[in-house]
Amino acid sequence: IKMAGDSRFPDVDTDGSEKSEEMEIVVNVGGVRQVFYGDNLIQYPETRLAELINCLSGGYDSIFSLCDDYDPGKREFYFDRDPDAFKCIIDVYYFGEIHMKKGICPICFKNEMEFWKVDLKFLDDCCKTHLSEKKEELEEIARRVQLILDDLGVDASESRWKRCQKCIWKFLEKPESSYPARVIAVLSFLFILISSVVMCVGTIPDLQVVDAEGNRMEHPTLDSIETACIGWFTMEYVLRLISSPNKLHFALSFMNIVDVLAILPFYVSLTLTHLGAKLMELSNVQQAIQALRIMRIARIFKLARHSSGLQTLTYALKRSFKELGLLLMYLAVGIFVFSALGYTMEQSHPETLFKSIPQSFWWAIITMTTVGYGDIYPKTTLGKLNAAISFLCGVIAIALPIHPIINNFVRYYNKQRVLETAAKHELELMELNSAEGKATGSKSELEDLSREGKESPFYNSRLKVSHSDTFIHLLSEEKHYRTRLQSCK
Predict the structure, then answer these.
(1) Where are the alpha helices (DSSP H) in 174-280?
(2) I want to staple 162 with a disulfide (CB 3.0 to 4.6 A). Which of 35, 51, 158, 436 is the partner?
(3) What is the DSSP letter of 274?
(4) Full domain range(s) for residue 175
(5) How many domains does the chain have?
(6) Which helix (H) or strand (E) holds 93?
(7) Which residues contact 422 (CB under 8 A, 6 or more apart)?
C-alpha cells in the first residue's frame, strides 16, 4: 500500500530494499497526531509502534491487527486509546524510561503499557511505587468482596458440620452479617466494659471485705460479676476457635492472644487458690494471685476487636516505627547531654540534688517531656539555663515526628473507608448486572447465584463481569482493557 508523491513515506521497492530506519509513520491517538521515525522505533522492535513499520507490506489484515483504523490517503494510523498516557509511554523511545503523569490511574497506565507492548521494567521506580499501592488496594477490595461472596455462597458438597462452623463464625466474627450477630457484638462489648469497671471498683477500700485472716478482698458480688464475665469470654473464645477456618492463624493472631491473656489469669488464680496452698506458703499464694489479677487489664485491649479506630491507631503506630525511632533517638541524645551538663553545673552548689549522672537522667526525662515533677530541680544559674534549653529542645524533638505519625493515621483511616465503600460498590454492581441478566427479574440475583453454589457455571460466568470503572482483575480470569472513553475513579 503506497501513495505516489507522498513524501512522508518513501516508495518501497518490491525487493524490500528500503531501510526501516528511514521510514516515517504518523499515529493518531485519541485525536492527537504524532510523527515517528523508524530509527527511534526499531530500538524496541517488540513494541506495537515498531511493528507498524513493517505492517504496510502485509496488507490491510496486518494493519488492522495493530490499530483501530487506517487512512491510506494520509498514511495515518488511528488508535482509540488514552492520549495522555500515550504521551508518557513514547518517552521510552527517546529517554529509555517512562514517568507516569500525575492524575493518571496507575492500573489504567499499566493497561496502556501492555497495549503498546512496552515492558513494565521501563517504568521508573518512583512510578512503580504508585502502581504497587494501587495493586494492593485492588487486592484488598477483591479480598473483601470475595469474603462477602463466600459468606453468601453455600457449597452443597460440604458436610453439615462445616456449614454449622461457617454459621457460628459469621455469627461471632461478622456483626454486619445479621441482626442477631450485631446483638452478640454489642453484648460482648458490654461485657468488656462491665469487667473493666468491676476491676476498677473492686480496688476501692470501702467496697472491699475482710476475710478470716484479716486480708482485704473484693466484694463477693463483684467477684460473681467477674466470674460471669470470664464465663462469657471463655465461651466466646472457644466457639470462635472451634469455628475458625484456620485454627493456627487464629491462635497466633495478636488480638486472640490478648483474649487468652485476659482469660488465663482467672483460671490460674483459681487453681492457685485451691491447690497452691498445699505446694507453697499462703502468703506466696496471695502475692501470686494479686500479680495475676493485675493482668486483667489486658482485657481492655479486647475493645480493639470492636473498634476500627483502635485498629487504625495500631496500624499507624506500626507504620510509624521509623518516626518513633527518631523520636526516641532525639530524646536519648538530649537526655544524655543535658543530664551530664546539669550534673556538672550543679556540683558547685552545696545542696545539690544531682548526686550522679544516672540519677540526673530522671531529671532530664521529666524536663524534656515537659512533665516536671519538681522532685529534682537545678539551684544554680547555669543549671537553670541548662534546664530551659533542655525544655525547649524537648518540645522540638517531640513535635518533629508527630506530623508524619498523624498523617499515617489519617491516610490509613481514609483508605479503609474508601476500600469499604469500593467493596460495597462492586457488590452492588455485580448484583445489578446479575439481575439484568435474568429475564424473570428476581429481587437479588446475587443471593440466587449464591444458593446455586460456586460450582455452577452460571455463577462463575456472571460474577466475572463488572461494570465498575475500577474493575477488579483479581476477581476474574479474563483480561479487560479500558479505552480512553472510560473514566477512572
Answers:
(1) 179-201, 220-243, 247-252, 254-271, 277-279
(2) 158
(3) I
(4) 163-306
(5) 3
(6) helix 92-95
(7) 137, 141, 470
